[in-house]
What we know:
Layout: E1 5-9, H1 19-31, E2 36-40, E3 50-54, H2 60-69, E4 75-78, H3 81-90, H4 92-100, E5 103-106, H5 117-120, E6 123-125, H6 138-143, E7 147-152, H7 161-167, E8 176-181, H8 187-199, E9 203-207, H9 211-219, E10 223-226, H10 235-241, E11 247-250, H11 253-259, E12 266-267, H12 272-284, H13 286-299, H14 305-325
Parallel strand pairs: 1-2, 1-3, 3-4, 4-5, 5-6, 7-8, 7-10, 8-9, 10-11, 11-12
Helix pairs in contact: 2-4, 3-4, 7-8, 7-12, 12-13
Amino acid sequence: MVKPHIYIVTPASAKTNNGNWLTASRWAGFLRERYRVTLALSWDGRSCDAMIALHARRSASSIAAFAAAHPSLPLVLVLTGTDLYRDIGTDVDGRRSLQLATHRVVLQPEGLLELDPELRDRTTVIYQSARVLKPVPMELKQRMRHFDVTMVGHLRHEKDPLTFMRAAMHINDRRIRLLHIGGALDPEFALHARGTHDAHPHYRWLGHLPRALTRQRLKRSHLMIIASVMEGGANVIIEAVTSGVPVLASDIPGNRGMLGADYAGYFPLGDSLALARLIESAATDNAFYAWLQAQCAARAHLFMPERERTAVLKLMDNSIDARNAAPDISGPFR
């Protein structure tokens, strides 16, 4: 028996190693247990039984072409942060993709609130996942020379790297070291990173690192920072939590959907002084640090690979089964 064929479209390649690529690649691995899978930057017109597309705006041409050619086939749209918190409100192509999709996915429950009410009941929440890494024992971290605080993310506007850089100006504790991992997608941010690196001993820009090395760096850190302006459901939060590293996060819907409304580690968006004070509190107040750890540990079950795998397979099994059970209306009278 020939396995059904699923085509996954993502606007990012393996070379970029960004969140869209990681999601698409991980889902492809789950689905290959039961399906033939093609993973590509765009749809080439090849015959398939269903499409999964990441990013409403950037995958809009593939979504429109597939919907026109195969209106009765499942078309799953995975909504990213820029989709939810920018594009579907202002971009014609993004809104069209939202309407053309037969199924929609958001990566944390706060994302549902960005959709029109009639779409929410037909949208699935699927948390992403990461392989669990054995945490570095706390007694070992307490003996380290530095209290390492790591931000992982390419230097671009959506990640708000300047807030992390500016926090270095407000740090007084000499033990605290701010480590910034990420390539410079914007030359202006690269200038800021080099200048901050040279001017402030607390800040070190490490540039782009391979993903495996990044996870090991993160695992050995005391804190992970996410200062983003918008997030759909950040992989880096998951990688921190599944490595036993607590998070300090900008107070935006995408981060609240991942960490919970009552999480103690939020700072106002763009507020570098508030971020610096939270970092120093975590470094000096053992009870506060332990509370952050406990809150993150309580969310870890949401980010397990088996949970994500089950949800992805259920979504596609049900979508394809429903299509196969429906009457054929693709003939000349459609």
